[in-house]
Write a structure and sequence with these properties.
11 helices; alpha/beta; 356 residues; 6-stranded parallel sheet
């Protein structure tokens, strides 16, 4: 059987025992709250992981891009929700073909999706995306959201299902009190939109939002029906800094490629091996007090107080941010202990390449 020591580095590892613990823990927590879980597959882009999330109780998965939806749909993954508004009729035709539920935040998107649905000969489920304070996407006000919802409701080939009220800020707001404040603010805005929609006889069957960072807070929100949390399966340093108690199941395996200086070694994992958006580096597993420093595209330095790892040693690192780190790799090696139990592909985008 293949072992970690036989893998080329840098490479992406998943500790199955920790991963499975994370899945069971979140599923149980969400079930006990009376909510549903539709985890975000942008965290992993992996069909096998989506299957395991659904087997543990998820009602489907969220996706961030059209190609992620196509990947999941082609593998028979049910309950897809594209959480990103799009403004390209060609992409809209593709997403309609997957059967995914979609979000809109503008009347033009309603018209485009309705036309795409006509061409496909099918109904499309739609949520209205509401800006709950991030100003990234979403209808600008609850009143605007209700107006767009009416347009969806009146479109012959669209089915209004409710509202998307996701807070980007809430995920990493900085401490439980601040996360709670941001969540309360976000769902206060959502509550106003829901009230207007209900008074107009519009569907609010689904209110989708929430994240790994605010799962405990958001499950107590009466209006929320489902959570989009995704990173809980992997966990990373950013969420640990927020006090989350999930296991670090995702690591990057690297090799010490130079050990010629006292106090630090060089590993073969640099900017191309880890996401760099958090402003800090990864953390070495089992090397207390060590500090990672960026060393370039292919290299990193690991400062150690004593007992420097030897040349050729293997070191696992917890990434700062799991989602964009996973995006750097083609495969994830699913391990139990030191043994590699499976190799799962991480689909790369090919469907957006124009063919001559």
């Amino acid at each position: 059987m293949l072992t970690k020591q036989q893998l080329p580095t840098p490479t992406l590892l998943l500790d199955l025992d920790k991963f499975e613990t994370n899945l069971v823990r979140m599923a149980a927590r969400i079930k006990s709250s009376g909510k549903a879980l539709r985890p975000h597959a942008k965290a992993h882009k992996c069909v096998e992981i989506a299957r395991r999330q659904i087997a543990s109780g998820a009602i489907g998965v969220c996706v961030a891009t059209v190609w992620e939806a196509e990947l999941m749909a082609s593998a028979g993954i049910p309950g897809l929700l594209l959480t990103s508004p799009i403004a390209d009729p060609l992409k809209m035709r593709r997403i309609v073909a997957t059967g995914a539920m979609v979000v809109v935040d503008h009347f033009q998107q309603v018209a485009w999706y309705d036309q795409a649905a006509v061409e496909a000969g099918r109904k499309v489920d739609v949520l209205v995306d509401l800006d709950v304070g991030d100003h990234r996407t979403g209808a600008a006000t609850p009143e605007d959201a209700a107006e767009i919802a009416e347009a969806v409701d009146q479109a012959a080939n669209l089915e209004l299902r409710g509202l998307q009220a996701y807070s980007v800020r809430g995920s990493h707001a900085g401490g439980p009190d601040e996360r709670k404040r941001v969540s309360a603010e976000a769902f206060g805005i959502a509550s106003r939109a829901i009230g207007i929609m209900l008074r107009r006889g519009l569907s609010t069957e689904i209110v989708s939002g929430g994240s790994t960072g605010t799962w405990k807070i958001d499950t107590a929100v009466p209006d929320l029906t489902e959570l989009q949390a995704g990173s809980y399966g992997f966990m990373d340093l950013a969420y640990r800094r927020e006090g989350l108690d999930f296991e670090h199941a995702l690591t990057i395996l690297a090799t010490v490629v130079s050990a010629n200086h006292a106090g630090f070694v060089t590993v073969d994992a640099g900017f191309k091996a880890f996401a760099t958006d958090r402003g800090y580096g990864p953390e070495a597993v089992g090397l207390s007090g060590s500090v990672y420093r960026w060393g370039g595209d292919e290299f990193g330095y690991l400062d150690v107080a004593s007992g420097s790892p030897k040349l050729g040693s293997r070191i696992e690192f917890i990434p700062p941010h799991c989602d964009p780190t996973v995006n750097l790799y083609d495969f994830i090696y699913a391990c139990r202990g030191d043994s590699v139990e499976a190799v799962w592909p991480l689909k790369k985008r090919t469907s957006d390449i124009l063919q001559n």
